[in-house]
Amino acid sequence: MTREPLLVLDNITKKYGAIxxxxxxxxxxxxxxxVALLGDNGAGKSTLVKIIAGGLEPTSGRMLFEGREFLARxxxxxxxxGIETVYQDLSLATNVDVVANFFMGRELTRRVFGxxxxxEKAMEAVVAAALAxxxxxxxxxxxxxEHLSGGQRQAIELNRFVHWGGKLVLLDEPFxxxxxxxxxxxxxxxxxxxxxxxxxxxxxxxxxxxxxxxDRIVVIRQGVVAxxxxxxxxxxxxxxxxxxxxxLAGAGPAG
Length: 255
Ligand SMILES: Nc1ncnc2c1ncn2[C@@H]1O[C@H](COP(=O)(O)OP(=O)(O)O)[C@@H](O)[C@H]1O
Ligand SMILES: [Mg+2]
Hints:
- A six-stranded mixed beta sheet has the order 6-9-10-3-11-12, with helices on both faces. A four-stranded antiparallel beta sheet has the order 2-1-4-5, covered by helices on one side.
- Strand 7 (109-112) and strand 8 form a beta hairpin.
- The protein is built from eight helices and twelve strands.
- It has 255 residues and is of the alpha/beta class.
- The structure holds adenosine-5'-diphosphate (ADP) and magnesium ion.
- Residues 45-46 line the site of magnesium ion.
């Protein structure tokens, strides 16, 4: 399937002092596409994702976002453009409830005798609708986030991202701390997010997850793209060979 490109990476390099972590990375992420980023420890995956999300400056190279040259200098600049990293836990306020987290900084208000007050009912309805459309079940939207599981927190973050017009979400090992059932829900959630036209980049070291959720698999090896393949056109064995360097891109399904 040909997709409209959302983000194009053009020859991105990154040096940490003498270490060349990225040696010229080029690939594209389409609208509504899930790209799994695979590679051995130290391959450069996290570095790349940080650069995309404005958390790290590349040494050279450029990015095109929705057809325009764009390089976020800070995470908030990336976020304003619709690019966000979802870290389990880190971006939610645990001491307030689900609704408050959803609307953090964007609260709905109504006027009582001319004075703006929070419109809790309206906000709760918005959150309920958003979660329902994604198939996310949270027992009570008035539960403080500290009482929710890791999987529920992740689902809230992703729902919030979708609701506020997010365009590209980056996930670095999102299920590392989750159990089997929560991981399954998380994978479903990713598919739901992509079905809204959002681009998804997921770093995972679990091959099965990559094949379950990704449209494309991009393998990074020692700072270069060692494979960029349709997940339906390759196999776990072939991807392992790309990761370890036994073969380069273009290997078909293993016999
Ligand atoms: N802050 C840093 N300072 C120096 N070297 C770093 C830093 N972060 C990562 N590296 C190095 O860059 C390379 C790529 O790391 P990283 O992007 O974390 O890989 P991955 O996420 O694929 O495991 C590794 O050699 C790592 O040691
Ligand atoms: Mg990493």
